[in-house]
Backbone:
């Protein structure tokens, strides 16, 4: 009988806040798709802007995999407030392919050319767009994912030329991945929160998978757990209610008015309430911008406490001890205070306890287990607190 080596996390360095960082595989936040990356690069080199994958490369990548794209026409009607880049990103996400903003802009230019649109920034409500030029990329994503899965099943050693090439491709700028339905099983809190949001009418049923894919994409980009984002929204907006508002803060993470606040970061400083007119998918784009502006990924891997403080009061992230009162003005929801007593302070530990308890009560089940990374980070907070008390 052979025993695999234990998977105990080891501390290799410290992050910007001085806390231990855990060693991570290069695949911790993204699945490599080197085959798809090669296909995309080849397709973009074709004259005239057509996305044509060479037949020999397509056959090599596809193998025996069944393509997910079909020959049926793929088109959409432009809705008010949409951009071509956003349409491309959302439509690809709906088909299980998550792409970066850079890739979305690049593909939007190709879609514009295939629709004889001179300016990709000028589209109009009611305009019908053909997205058939994107279909080969969805097919290649499926083929690349299947090829990657087959390589993993064969237990290819980490130091083989194949794996070295894969890691090199992963380090490139194209970060494109296929998110299959099986991925939903890895994020039970997020899945239950989205299902609940659909039942409540917060998310249209046809947007369900796209919302899931978008949140997973954001989690990889900003280095937080998808389930923790669900817990955040369950506290802030009853679980992704795009029309949630308390007169000063609005939307799924409560973008607040005022200078240097969430609404201003999202581009709605002059009219914060206009956020309420946008869908969950559109508001997730605003979340992306806000997380980028607040430097969330610099705290990664981001624990639930840092994720929530980024939304509530980013400056409070500087206090890292778990049981010390945070400088958060005003009375907040009782869940966030120590012992749910609004006269008591708010600490990192009270935030963690409150968000988990709130999620359990709203979802009606115990889905509050912490992942290993967050448990280790909480241990780091505790150690830091002990050192502070001694000195």
Residues:
């Amino acid at each position: 009988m052979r025993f695999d080596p234990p998977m105990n996390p080891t501390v290799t360095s410290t992050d910007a806040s001085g806390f231990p960082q855990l060693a991570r595989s290069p695949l911790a936040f993204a699945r490599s798709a080197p085959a798809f990356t090669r296909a995309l690069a080849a397709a973009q080199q074709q004259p005239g802007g057509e996305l044509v994958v060479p037949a020999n490369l397509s056959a090599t990548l596809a193998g025996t995999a069944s393509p997910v794209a079909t020959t049926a026409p793929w088109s959409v009607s432009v809705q008010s407030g949409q951009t071509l880049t956003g349409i491309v990103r959302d439509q690809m996400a709906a088909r299980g392919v998550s792409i970066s903003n850079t890739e979305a802009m690049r593909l939007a230019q190709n879609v514009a050319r295939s629709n004889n649109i001179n300016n990709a920034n000028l589209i109009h409500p009611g305009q019908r767009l053909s997205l058939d030029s994107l279909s080969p990329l969805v097919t290649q994503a499926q083929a690349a994912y299947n090829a990657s899965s087959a390589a993993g099943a064969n237990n290819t050693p980490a130091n083989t030329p194949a794996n070295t090439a894969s890691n090199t491709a992963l380090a490139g700028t194209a970060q494109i991945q296929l998110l299959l339905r099986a991925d939903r099983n890895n994020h039970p809190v997020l899945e239950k929160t989205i299902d609940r949001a659909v039942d409540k009418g917060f998310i249209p049923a046809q947007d369900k998978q796209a919302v899931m894919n978008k949140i997973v994409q954001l989690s990889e980009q900003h280095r937080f757990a998808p389930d923790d984002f669900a817990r955040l929204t369950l506290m802030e907006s009853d679980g992704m209610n795009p029309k949630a508002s308390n007169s000063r803060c609005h939307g799924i993470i409560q973008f607040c008015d005022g200078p240097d606040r969430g609404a201003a970061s999202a581009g709605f400083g002059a009219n914060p309430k206009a956020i309420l007119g946008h869908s969950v998918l559109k508001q997730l784009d605003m979340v992306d911008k806000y997380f980028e502006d607040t430097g969330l990924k610099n705290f990664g891997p981001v624990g639930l406490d840092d994720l929530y403080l980024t939304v509530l009061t980013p400056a409070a992230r500087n206090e890292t001890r778990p049981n010390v009162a945070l400088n958060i003005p005003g009375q907040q929801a009782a869940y966030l205070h120590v012992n749910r007593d609004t006269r008591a302070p708010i600490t990192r530990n009270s935030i963690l306890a409150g968000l988990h308890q709130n999620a359990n009560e709203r979802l009606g089940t115990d889905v509050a287990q912490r992942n290993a990374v967050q448990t280790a980070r909480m241990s780091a907070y505790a150690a830091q607190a002990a050192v502070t008390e001694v000195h």
Summary: The longest helix spans residues 135-153. The chain has two domains: 34-174, 186-390.
